[in-house]
Amino acid sequence: MQRPMKKVPRLRRDHFIDLRPFAVSPAFTRLWIGSTLAGLGGQLTIVAVMLHVYDLTGDTFAVSMVAVAGLVPMIIAGLYGGMLADAFDRRLVALLAAVVTFASTLLLAILAWSQLETVWWLYLLSVVNSAANSIVGATKSAITPRLIPRELLPAAAALQGITVGIMVMAGPALAGVLVAFAGYAWTYTIDVLLMSTLFLGLWTLPSIRPEGAVVKPGLESLRDGLRFLRHAPNIRLQYILDIIAMTFGHPLALFPAIGAVLLGGGAITTGALTASIAVGAFVSSLLSGPVGRVRRHGVGIERAIQVFGAATVLFGAVLAAAALGWFAPPVVDADHANITLIVIAAIVLAVTGAADNVSAIYRSTMMQAAVPDAMRGRLQGIFTVVVAGGPRIGALYAGVLATITALWLPPLLGGFIIVGLVGLLVRLNPRFRLYDAQHPVP
C-alpha cells in the first residue's frame, strides 16, 4: 500500500530548478539523496578500478576491457531487471540488486586491504557491479512515477540531472585524488560507506507492486514489451532520436588524441573537455524551471537534440581551426596548449551537455507518464540497451572516421547529420510534435 502524497505546492514561475518533488514526497527525497551519494561512490569505484587495472598491468587495452567486459552483462541485466520490476514488488527487486552491488564493492575493499586483488578479480567484480546497478536503475525509474504526481515528473527528471552532474563532475576527480593520496583500499571503502545510503532510500519505501496484468519474467515478457514498443510511436521515436544523437555526437573517444596533438595540454585538456559536458548538464538542471512548464515534450526533444547537433558542429569547427593553427602557440603538445580554443571548445561542449540534459528530462518524463505502470520496468530495461549501445557505436564511428580522415571531421559531419536526421524523422512522424504532457500518449 502506498502512503498518500502531500498536496502539490503552487509552481513558482522562475528560472531555477523546481524543488516541489522534495516537498510533496519524503520517500522520493530519501531515494534521491541515497541515489546521489551512492552514484558518486559508484563513480569513485569505476575510476579507481581502471586506475587499479593499469597499475597492475601497465596496459591501456586491459583498462578499456573493463568497460567492454561489462557491456553485455549490463544489457542483459537491464532487460531482465525491467521484467522483474514489472512482475514483483519493485522495492524488493531494487533492494536485492542493491545488496549485490554493495557486496561486490565491499569485496573489492576487502581484497584491496588484504592485498589479494588481481586483474581478474577486478574484472569480475566490475561486471557484477555493473549488472546489479542496471537492475537498480531500471527499477528506480519505474518506481519514481508512483512516488510523485505526474505534473512533477519533469522536475524529478531535472533533479536526476543534478545527480548525474554531481557524479560525473566530482566522481572522477575525487577518485584520482583519493587513489593518489589514500590508496585503492580507502577509495573502495569510501564507496562502501556512500553506497550504504542507497539502502535508506529503498528500505523506507512502501511496497510498490506493478499495476495491471503481470507477466512472468522470461522471453514472453520481453516480447510483450517489444510488442508494446511497436505500437508506441512516440516512445519508439525518442529512442531512435537518442541513438542518432549518441552515435554522431559523442566524440569522447577522440578527447585523448585531441589533448595530445590538436589542442595540446594532454590529460588535463581531456579531463577539462569531459568535465565541461557534465557542467553543462548540471547548470541546465539548476536553471530548469521553464522546462517543467512546457507541454509539447516532442517539440522539446526535437529542439534540444538539434541544439545538441548544432553545438557538435561548432565543436568540430573549433577542432578544424586548431588544425589550421589558429591561436596556437609555437608548439602544441602535452606541455603546450592552445588555451583560447580549449576554452571555446569547453563552452561549446557545455552547450551539448545542457541540450542533452534537457532532452533527457523530456524523454524521461514522456516514458514515465505515457507508458502504463505494468510496462515501465521493461521499457526502462529496453532503454538500457539504447543508453549502453549508443555511445559505444558513437566511439566506433568517431574512431574509424578520425583514423581515415582527421580528428575534426567526425563531430563536424556528425552534428550536421544529427540536425538533418532529427528534423526529417520528426517531420515524418507529426504526432510526435503534437505530444501533450497533459494528455500523454505513448
Structural descriptors:
TM_effector, mainly alpha, Growth Hormone, Chain: A, 2 domains, transport, 16 helices, membrane, transmembrane, globular, MFS_dom, 442 residues, single chain
Please describe what this structure looks like.
- The protein is mainly α and 442 residues long.
- It has 2 domains: 190 residues, Growth Hormone, Chain: A; 230 residues, MFS general substrate transporter like domains (Growth Hormone, Chain: A), CATH 1.20.1250.
- It is built from 16 helices and no strands.
- Helix 3 runs antiparallel to helix 14, helix 4 packs antiparallel against helix 7 and helix 6 crosses helix 13.
- The two termini are 27 Å apart.
- It is a multi-pass membrane protein.
Summary, kept brief:
This protein is mainly α.
> Could you tell me the mean pLDDT?
87
CA radius of gyration: 22 Å
Helix fraction bin: over 70%
CATH topology of the largest domain: Growth Hormone, Chain: A
